[in-house]
Amino acid sequence: MTALPGKKALGHIRVLDLTRVLAGPWCAQNLADLGADVIKVERPGAGDDTRSWGPPYLRDADGNDTSEAAYYLAANRGKRSITLDIASPEGQQIVRELARQSDVVLENYKVGQLKKYGLDYASLKQEKPDLVYCSITGFGQTGPYAQRAGYDFIIQGMGGFMSITGERDDLPGGGPQKAGVAISDLMTGMYATIAVMAALTHRDRTGEGQYIDMALLDVQVAMLANMNTNYLASGNPPRRWGNAHPNIVPYQTFATSDGHIIVAVGNDGQYRRFVEAGGRPDLVADERFATNPMRVRHRDTLVPLLADMVATKTKQQWIDALEAAGVPCGPINNLDEVFDNPQVVARGMRVDLPHPTGAIVKLVGSPMKMSATPPQHDMSPPLLGQHTDDVLRDVLGRNDQQIEALRSKRVV
């Protein structure tokens, strides 16, 4: 989907991004994809922590590693990077000036840390009354844990996610399991994106800015969705079921002769067609397996029989047979299979952008498909401080002599 020049949903918005690592940068990248001018403020000489979280690193045209870690590249597309020592009075003044020229400030410092620099919401609101200011922390600005540092892994455990994720405790390998990606960070970034855009809409209607207090723990609790309400309705905490389903059999993964598939049988007719495709119609005739309630009751007997059946064919043979039979199924792809998948290719989920190092950086495109103002991927993740002079000159009106004076003091 190609956007017309200038057709950017948030092309009128400037975001001052004081965040690092993942939750805040993920929010800022969403806003950048939608057209916002995002100015990323980084520590001189070091930058965002994730710049050094490698290998792997971006490789240049000759196949040599650059200093740009793939982790950093994943969450910082479309931004301008400036380096700034916000612990210095001159750096704090520049942040205040940039805030006056911005619509949104994002930050993920520890609770109260920016207040000592005069860069908290109460202070910056005096500079710009209609400012939207979003703070992202592990536990929020209030409550007994507010001063604690919040890490995604810990939040997944504290927020209940790991109590329902992992193999059944009575099976080999049973026990709590974290997600393969930092889901509480990512989901906090997504919720923060929604909150920022809602606050901007409110500002545009009323002229009133506001403060947004986002906490990873709040988000982790919220995103358990029906598992929360199952508990609240019954008083019984849900338990881990691995890749199985507590109420439906078979609804799980199976190992084929060359990989794994997911079989999601939703009714008795689909079950019949599944076992017939595997050459085991006797597994329908057996009254222990004739209906879903009976299959749930006898899952420990049935599932090993189905596992033996599935293991006789390849992954693709099963996918072809079950799709033809109308049985819901799917492969468990690794990432090379994901990016070769014709549907993923057709949807444009990989984007290649030229990088200042001369390399081509391969990134995942935004999943937001919009007819009038689709996301645009026209800026690669920036080098550390790549846009410092441009921002100081064009946004704040500093001249070359003033910029050099800041650089000599190591403010930038």
Automatic annotation (TrEMBL):
Q: Which Gene3D superfamilies match?
A: Crotonobetainyl-coa:carnitine coa-transferase, domain 1, formyl-coa transferase, domain 3
Can you name the source organism?
Noviherbaspirillum saxi
- State the organism's lineage: Bacteria, Pseudomonadati, Pseudomonadota, Betaproteobacteria, Burkholderiales
**Matching Pfam families, A to Z?**
CoA_transf_3 (PF02515)
* UniProt-recorded Gene Ontology molecular function terms: CoA-transferase activity
State the UniProt keywords alphabetically. Answer: Transferase
Secretion signal span: none
Protein name in UniProt? CoA transferase
Specify the domain of life of the species encoding this protein. Answer: Bacteria
